[in-house]
Amino acid sequence: MKILKNRTIESEELKMIKAPKGIYVPVITTFNDDESIDFASYKKVIDFVIENGVHGLLIGGTTGEYHVMSAEERKSLIKAACEYAAGRVPVMAGVGCFTAKDTIELANFAAECGAEYGLVLPPYYHHTTDAGIVDFYKEIAANSKVGIVIYNYPGATNVEMPPEMIYELSQEENIVSVKESADFGHLCQVLTLTSDVDNFTVFTGEEHFILPTFSVGGQGAFGILINLLPKEIVKIYELAMAGDLKAATELNSKIRGIYGLMEVEGNPYPGPVKAGMDMIGMKGGKVRKPLTQPTDDLKAKMKEQLIKLGYSVK
């Protein structure tokens, strides 16, 4: 029996937003040499991943280096991405801020630009109680015009969100999904608890967990590597959804050698995937300071893996 969500949003302006599914790429942000945003190259990246089958875009997330951007830069990125996507796939905007008020403001800006979802981290640095986290999300959900996606990433935030907390939040009408970047056991517990909740999906945020997530009933995935290998990871999803886990496993085995390279010099870290994109002729470019550029050793390993996958690299 489905558990119906709490009806807390009454405005006709805020329609019921369908929960996301599929492969969502956390889009890198391309920079010029002076660290300004290279919007022309950014559009090419968005076109590339959409043309290769992704089901949605995550704009200004961790991979997009939002944490080294001003508020105005974050807004400019969201606005441009919605224009470039042009309705071809849904846009999810990274809208997390330290306060609910600022998060709501950015979420509603994203909605005005055309985004359908907002990804929100729990309050971190100055920690609050579990009740404070729940109230934070409920306030945002009740006042935002985008569907809210919980971002559970304790490795980065040092904030633990127990599965029971995520279950409680899943029952809010405008909270439609969770991005799980915790351990796989946590993801499985969340899946079990929320399996009967109406209009709520569970995504993994880790490359290594993409295929396992689909095999246990998860509905979607994010991953830095999708910027570079969108076609391959979309194919894994399609095979898994069709029930052909054997073929999905075979394809996953071919590309998993590159999974571990995403985090060998930092976590989370878009440097390796940016270097790989440069190698295949799709500008990835530099990371923004204080992040450091990938080493020559890492670039050599990326090149080796891409050649194994049949790519012509520079």
Automatic annotation (TrEMBL):
SMART domains for this protein: DHDPS
- EC numbers, comma separated: 4.3.3.7
Q: Which InterPro entries match?
A: Aldolase_TIM (IPR013785), DapA (IPR005263), DapA-like (IPR002220)
Record's keyword terms, sorted: Amino-acid biosynthesis, Cytoplasm, Diaminopimelate biosynthesis, Lyase, Lysine biosynthesis, Schiff base
Chief location bin: cytoplasm
Kindly name one Pfam family recorded for this protein.
DHDPS
Keyword ATP-binding attributed: no
* Annotated positions for site Part of a proton relay during catalysis: T62, Y125
| Listed CDD domains | DHDPS-like
Please state which protein family the record places this protein in: Belongs to the DapA family.
Q: What is this protein called?
A: 4-hydroxy-tetrahydrodipicolinate synthase
- Its gene is dapA
